[in-house]
Design brief:
Layout: H1 10-20, E1 67-73, E2 80-86, E3 90-92, E4 106-111, E5 118-121, E6 123-125, E7 128-129, E8 138-140, E9 143-149, E10 157-164, E11 169-170, E12 174-177, E13 191-195, H2 201-212, E14 217-221, H3 240-243, H4 255-268, E15 273-276, H5 292-297, E16 312-317, E17 320-325, E18 342-348, E19 355-360
Parallel strand pairs: 13-14, 14-15
Antiparallel strand pairs: 1-2, 2-9, 3-8, 4-5, 4-10, 6-9, 7-8, 10-11, 10-12, 16-17, 17-18, 18-19
Bound molecules: 2-acetamido-2-deoxy-beta-D-glucopyranose (4 copies).
One 2-acetamido-2-deoxy-beta-D-glucopyranose is lined by residues 231, 233-235.
Length: 362
Amino acid sequence: MGVLAFPLFLPLLWRLIVVNASFPTTLEGPFKPVTVPFDNQSYHGNAIDLPDTDPQIQRTVQGFEPEQVSVSLSSDYDSVWISWITGDSQIGDDITPLDPESVYSVVQYGIEGSQMSNEEVGYSLVYNQLYPFEGLQNYTSGIIHHVRLTGLEPSTLYQYQCGDPYISAMSDVFYFRTMPPSSPTNYPHRVAVVGDLGLTYNTSTTFGHLLSNHPDLLVLVGGISYADMYLTNGTGSDCYPCSFDESPIHETYQPRWDYWGRFMQPLVANVPTMLVGGKHEIEPQAEDQIFVSYSSRFAFPSEESGSSSSAYYSFNAGGIHFVILNPYTYYDKSCKASTLLFIIFIFDSYSPGFCISILSIQ
Ligand SMILES: *[C@@H]1O[C@H](CO)[C@@H](O)[C@H](O)[C@H]1NC(C)=O
Ligand SMILES: *[C@@H]1O[C@H](CO)[C@@H](O)[C@H](O)[C@H]1NC(C)=O
Ligand SMILES: *[C@@H]1O[C@H](CO)[C@@H](O)[C@H](O)[C@H]1NC(C)=O
Ligand SMILES: *[C@@H]1O[C@H](CO)[C@@H](O)[C@H](O)[C@H]1NC(C)=O
């Protein structure tokens, strides 16, 4: 949708396939940086959102069974976060938030091939997206669970199940591989960085490319669900400001986030995925709250990396140290951050020669 709808890295992805037959891994490098001009012949026009009726985005679980499962990294290889949602969301005039304490947050896990005899307990929450305006509908989420696993071995495949074992509501078994230890000689094989993923038919193409290339780590940069291209009544548009200039606030249709979580589960339940908020995740609502859905649905290694906000955090992936900076949050009384560039530094903290920085102006 919109100008930035296409995955920024798809052209590069295709070029690599054509040139090298398969993706090189970082261990085959170092490579000279490659810049590929944007192929505006193949990538013009608007991407079309998956409709509400698409089978891949339906709620298929019963009761309080987990759905929208994802794994993300903590600050180092020995720890990850597992996140999921239980219970159904509600939207409309008469909504009652679920009690987050009513369902336990438990992950059972072990090294692949052994018993899942380790157990970790986490916390749960619900969030609301409220619009104090006549005619607009409010949303309250299902129960969102986050559990941090610790004491993990490096470069090791783990299997896990999440849910509430006391009500027999456990998920399927999923797998994740931990990052290698942080040193100048250890790197994840493949790191996929994708911007503006959205939830369109073209997202399906990118999703397929990602799955088949088995990344060790996925970094998703802003433009995640595009729920902010919709009114609260579920009417969407390719161009929000052109279509909905009457609306008293920039509305969203939060069920799109649930659709996105279901669609992405086969990938993000098995590949550690780090999110970087962008302008589509701001989603202003009552009492001037912003980024509520983004920061509630996913876990971030903020506390572990000494940050008080999901807008800023850092983590190690082998010899790479990622620093994530969200430019859409005030960071200084005198400077509105949204006038800045959107910057991610991906650099190796050990060897000064290895440095990638990704800039995107939003
Ligand atoms: C594609 O880019 C070229 C070079 O920048 C430009 O001349 C051409 O008009 C563009 N075509 C479309 C369809 O945007
Ligand atoms: C939505 O929530 C706001 C803030 O609590 C409230 O003012 C408004 O009346 C609610 N809207 C509906 C339709 O219930
Ligand atoms: C994007 O999806 C549309 C169908 O909605 C398709 O016609 C188009 O070819 C796709 N674009 C790319 C670059 O795959
Ligand atoms: C949603 O609201 C818009 C603006 O008020 C209106 O034009 C549209 O018909 C509504 N759609 C539905 C499905 O009610």
